[in-house]
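Listing S7. Sequence submitted for prediction.
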Amino acid sequence: MDKRVAQTAEAILSRAWGAPVRLRAGADDGLDGRTYVHRAIVEGAVGQTPKTVIVKEPRSWEGSRYDPSRPGGPAATFLAEWAGLELLTERGGESLVAPRFYGGDASEGVLVMEDLGTGQRLDHALLGDDP
């Protein structure tokens, strides 16, 4: 996770939690080789904050760059994930069915969500050979 992304994520969490937050890249930063998904260790926070969070950036594909003002491309999938997580967090109450959404910065292309820990990835479960 580069410095710009880390600083943006720290600002997002500081706003969400109402206190300064520092993040440090976890040992498995860039989860499963995905350079746009980061597990970050939460430091310098107060209260009941999680020990880690997931920080995501838009994934570039087919030479397209993230541009939140342009329809389609990486912005569309990134902002759709953001909207889904935010909706499920707002409507889920205590029985969340998705990771908790902590916040995001559309102009910087960074969102922060709950870390559900290690385990099998959803795409591996859906594409596996065990019916």
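Caption to Listing S7: primary sequence and predicted structure tokens for the chain studied. The radius of gyration is 15 Å. The mean pLDDT is 85.
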